Known about the structure:
By secondary structure, this protein is of the alpha/beta class. It has 4 domains: 3-179, Beta-Lactamase (2-Layer Sandwich), CATH 3.30.450.40; 208-372, 3-Layer(aba) Sandwich (Rossmann fold), CATH 3.40.50; 376-466, Helicase, Ruva Protein, domain 3; 468-522, no CATH class. 46% of the residues lie in helices and 15% in strands. The chain has helices at 3-24, 30-45, 85-93, 115-118, 153-198, 208-220, 237-246, 265-273, 290-293, 309-321, 347-353, 358-364, 381-393, 405-413, 419-433, 446-453, 468-486, 491-498, 502-512, 516-520, and strands at residues 48-55, 61-67, 79-81, 96-99, 123-132, 135-145, 227-230, 255-259, 274-275, 287-288, 298-302, 323-324, 333-334, 338-343, 367-370, 402-403, 438-439, 533-535. Helix 10 (309-321) packs across helix 12 (358-364). Mean pLDDT is 82; it is low at 455-466 and 522-530.
Amino acid sequence: MDKVFLDSRRALELEAVLSLSRLIGSELDQRNTLSETLNLLHSQLDMTRGIILLVTPDKEGLILEVAHGITSYQKGKLTYQRGEGIVGQVIETGRSIAIPKISEEPMFLDRIYNRRKKISEEISFICVPIVCENEVLGTLSVDKKYEGDNAGLDHDVQILKIVASMIAYDVKIRRQNAEIQSSLEAENIRLKEELLRFRPENLVGNSMVMRDVYQAIYQVAPSDATVLIRGESGTGKELAAAAIHNASNRKDAAFVRVNCAALNENLLESELFGHEKGAFTGAISLRKGRVEEAEGGTLFLDEIGDFSLSIQVKILRLLQERTYERVGSSTTRRANVRLICATNRNLEEAMAQGTFREDLYYRINVFPIVLPPLRDRRSDIVLLANHFIETNAKRMNKDIKQISAAAVDLMLNYRWPGNVRELENTIERAILLSHNGMIYDSQLPQTLQRVQKSSGTSGGTAGCVTSLKDRVEAVERPAILEALKRTKGNMAAAALELGTTPRILRYKVFHYGIDPKKEEAGMKGNTAASTWTVYGQ
């Protein structure tokens, strides 16, 4: 063969291989990548009717992935079994096969193109295995114009084996990534199911701090340990107490609430322990106390920091000995109740001032749970607002479909000193004033609107959220932080949870100056036939 022709052909082959390496390393999906590979083989190397078949999941056969020039084939329908036809033999042996004339090969099945009926010229056929790390992943086959027995076929086989090795690596990487993605999706589903299972029905919020609260609730609920719930007014301490009761073994018994701050000392003692008829002026009949009403269930003492010292002594006895007496009675009664206490006061400071007993403090502080203020869980604000709209709009005969962006800005930028209770009242007021199915910023209280007009930090954040960039950051940054904490700094898992890609998440992490590392501390023998040329792989 002419040397100039050979040199020109080698140059074309090298250029084609270089183009293929760039193509196969691109971000196209697998089907498009393989389809473009066959197009390139056809246009640059005169290898026509290229076919790529991949091993089925059970590894027992081959399934059609792409075929050059065919757009109407049914993916997943055309298959070959191991040992069936030429491609089946390639899969079975892991070795390449070249057929100079397909017309002389009875095992050539010709299922896809039906060449013998449609094509008059003689055709050579080459099939090579797609192998990665000794695992056969599929086959790559092409047609060549017949140029004489074995004329150039050996060289073409070597070229195709190079292409097949590049395809094999790409297929392997994509399958591994698909497995990782599938594993992450399964883990994400599991975590969501865990969240639904561990999030009490009466509490709303997905922020990291609230997830810590949910975990604490379900850790302590099965026991009879005394719980002290601490937090600012309006954070939902009673809801947390009810969640503990509902998740406990006492859930079928009574949950009795006593607001200690609403009663004076004498009335509070009677309210708690009951009284006998005639025990004091106005005691015209026997009255059961809240302790007795809660028998077998849970007694929730709200604002326990407001107890007088004399009542504290009796509560201490109830905790230590599980006994009490009604007012005006000397009969000792036993109590089978679980105590959950709550306060927004600084009990340590009260002990130092002598207004709260130290021994009682240690008795009630067996398992403390701290409810975060709303300003520390801003990513829950919109979720809570939508919850309150859903629960109140129907009752108030209003059809509210959404909250305006400006109203969301005000809510995200406000400090919420009254916490969740204040947010609920704000939403209820806005529902009353709303029209056209929308809550607007003008329908929110002046306390929120003054924050928008202020240029300082009266809202509790570094100024007002005014631009689109600020609005996005106000929600996006805490959401990324929480996802990284939940996934222990795993960027891929966090990206999946947030519905984005790892590349975009890495950019966001860099943009917001987040350190993910900190978030972490959270074949068989040979087979040959007379018309085949079998090549070692």
